[in-house]
Amino acid sequence: MPNAGGLTDREAAIDSVIRFVCALDEGDTDLSASSLTADAIMDLTPFKMVGMNYEVVHGRKIVVDRLMTTVGTALDTTHSATNIRCTVQGDTAGLTCCVLAQHFRKGEGLNPEFQDYYLFGNQFKCSVVREGELWRIKSLVIAPAWTQGNPDVMRI
């Protein structure tokens, strides 16, 4: 069944994750909010494996605020979602994907002479729901599969 913009349900569910990662790179609060339900849950506790102690975050406003202050407006980044698997059942979908997340300190991403960075190969596991014409992430677990570079880049 086509959604607004002519997307199939599967494509529209996937678009929620694309909006989520693009919002990080663009520092776009509104785009980030559009990707999440009001009661969204983001679980970053798997980052303990790489020495980062994050808690589970509840609620769209808190998730967006956290994302924008620690990544979206604080760093130069690119996030690329690949290997997307999505199964739609009615108004819900289960989605997994890999996200390559490149991070530079703010203002240093474009400098070819400065190569201090932190790169993650992350695994996303999402529950996505239809809300009106948009599909949104209801729950998201992000787990690093590997890292490369300087973790101090992430400390702002």
Comma- or semicolon-separated keywords:
Nuclear Transport Factor 2, Chain: A; six-stranded mixed sheet; NTF2-like_dom_sf; 156 residues; single chain; alpha+beta; SnoaL-like domain-containing protein; SnoaL-like
- Approximate helicity band: 10-25%
Strand content: 35-45%
> How many strand segments?
6
Element-by-element helix/strand order? HHEEHEEEE
Q: Identify the CATH architecture.
A: Roll
Q: What is the mean predicted local confidence, pLDDT?
A: 93
Number of helices: 3
Walk across the major sheet and give the strand order: 2-1-6-5-4-3
CATH top level assignment: Alpha Beta
Can you describe this structure in just a few lines?
This protein has helices at residues 9-26, 29-34, 60-72, and strands at 36-43, 56-58, 75-89, 92-105, 118-131, 134-149. The protein is α+β, with helices and mostly antiparallel strands. The chain has a single domain, classed as Nuclear Transport Factor 2, Chain: A.
Mind explaining what this structure looks like?
The chain is α+β, with helices and mostly antiparallel strands and 156 residues long. The chain has a single domain, classed as Roll (Nuclear Transport Factor 2, Chain: A). Helices cover 24% and strands 45% of the residues. The chain has 3 helices and 6 strands. It has a 6-stranded mixed β-sheet. A hairpin with a 2-residue loop joins strand 5 (118-131) and strand 6. Helix 1 crosses helix 3 (60-72). It is globular, with a radius of gyration of 15 Å. The mean pLDDT is 93.
Record the SSE blueprint.
Elements: H1 9-26, H2 29-34, E1 36-43, E2 56-58, H3 60-72, E3 75-89, E4 92-105, E5 118-131, E6 134-149
Parallel strand pairs: 1-6
Antiparallel strand pairs: 1-2, 3-4, 4-5, 5-6
